[in-house]
């Protein structure tokens, strides 16, 4: 006995009707044939990382225009543009690294981690250097634009689901 009731046997048994016992466990995972995998892949909507990067750039530039119109400040506009660059340039680095062909799954995982760490490092470095690069930096303008650019990833996922 456990706190949640009697223990369930492992591996779970098939039901008396010869099928899977749906009350206890999920059905086993079935490996797909290459033809089935190709058919499934063709039904799934794909979204290019380059398109997401472009969407981030456009959203950031629109945000910078809104900040320019709202504040009429050149410093705030340059700060907003630097916020766009602090997202787009490191993501450009990641996308470039991730779109290269890799021979194995382990190599792809190591490659992803490496490029992701480089992206994070580049983002941190750009934010640390921001006050030196942009004289009179407007942190609110930079951070608002940065947040807008980052949130585009969620919009891209939602857009992909509707296609």
TrEMBL record:
It is found in: Cell membrane. Residues 1-31 are annotated as: Disordered. Its main location: membrane. Keywords: Cell membrane, Membrane, Transmembrane, Transmembrane helix. It holds the Pfam family ATP-synt_I. The chain crosses the membrane at residues 50-70, 76-95, 107-131, 137-159. It is a multi-pass membrane protein. The keyword Transmembrane applies. This is ATP synthase subunit I. It comes from Pelomonas cellulosilytica.
């Amino acid at each position: 006995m456990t706190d949640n009731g009697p223990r369930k046997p492992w591996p779970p048994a098939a039901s008396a009707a010869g099928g899977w016992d749906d009350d206890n466990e999920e059905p086993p995972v079935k490996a797909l044939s290459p033809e089935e995998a190709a058919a499934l892949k063709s039904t799934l909507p794909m979204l290019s990382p380059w398109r997401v990067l472009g969407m981030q750039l456009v959203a950031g530039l629109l945000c910078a225009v809104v900040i320019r119109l709202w504040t009429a400040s050149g410093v705030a506009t340059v700060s907003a543009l630097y916020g766009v660059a602090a997202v787009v340039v490191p993501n450009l680095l990641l996308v470039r690294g991730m779109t290269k062909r890799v021979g194995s799954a382990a190599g792809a995982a190591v490659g992803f981690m490496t490029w992701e760490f480089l992206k994070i490092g580049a983002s941190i470095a750009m934010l640390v250097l921001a006050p030196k690069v942009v004289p009179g930096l407007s942190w609110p303008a930079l951070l608002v634009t940065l947040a807008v650019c980052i949130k585009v990833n969620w919009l891209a996922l939602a857009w992909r689901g509707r296609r």
